[in-house]
Amino acid sequence: MNPFPRALMHALTSWKNLADQALTTRPRTALLRLGLALAATAAMLPGAAQAQTKIIHPLRLIVPYVPGGSTDILSRLLGPALGEEFGQSVVIDNRPGGGSTIGTQFVAKAAADGYTLGMMDAAFITNPSLMKTLPYDTLKDFTPIVLVATSPLVMVVPTASPAKSVAEFVTYAKSRNGKISFGSAGIGTGVHLAAEQFRAATGLNMTHIPYKGTGQAVTELVSGQTDMMFTTQSSAKPMSAAGRMRPLGITSPKRSAVMPDVPTFIEAGWPMVDAVTINGIVGPAGMPADYVKRVNAAMNRALKNKEILEKMADQGFVPAGGSPEDFAAWIRSEIPKWNKIVKDADIKVE
Description:
Helices cover about 45% and strands about 20% of the residues. The protein is α/β, with parallel strands linked by helices. Helix 1 (about 5-20) runs antiparallel to helix 2 (about 25-40) and helix 7 crosses helix 13. The radius of gyration is 27 Å and the shape is globular. The termini are far apart.
């Protein structure tokens, strides 16, 4: 038998006895004892743990980029699930600029009352290494809530390249001794850092050619102006299907359902090449624990929803999830990892 009902009945009997005393011999002393008994027993009740943070207005989910990008798409996909948890609408608030630092700073400076959250991407992890100064402290000014998704990157080459695998590309690049180039969407972007990670793992001597965005980098690769690049599945899949580029490897730990014929870097023999784009939800530092728990639970439920999962897969997202503690530990481990890549490659963002 559960002992809780017995304890509660005992407490109720004590209340009655103390109340009787309060009405007869020692009212002041008895009333004090009655108050203490009520407080102690209230702490035993199931609903008496902690008051929930009340959310009575729409929430804002800050996206530090312009509308239409992958972080924006994911935010709009998951926003309704967050709104359902609190019975409020969720406004997607795009605040681009500064390599994502403007929107990120807005989250850091917001009140920790639950009304402002941020959907961060990989720049949240790499900016501490890439930028001389930041208007916030990545490890101190935020409350990590949940790692929402990852998105693997694909290493691609022109269809005219003699390389048919990662190993063949490494052999080919070494034979050309410094005459190999790789393109990217810009200095310090996720695809640039992925290529730098690959270069560090293989010891290749390659020249980086940064472009103003993915579109230009892809165009130059397809035309043979560069020899290799890393890009997203959403970019690589249609171009590969059309025979305009050749995928050699993918950074996911297992093969992707989006591009199942592309071997992983683990299969290719370079497991240390694991750069992925990520998205996770954070809030300002000091957010109430009960609120963080509810947001985390809402996102973990959403990441099991079949319709949401199908839409995420179409965009090349791999659902993540986990606890706030998991996300916080991941952030702490990733920042020094990318700091080493940035320092070794002497990457500087102006």
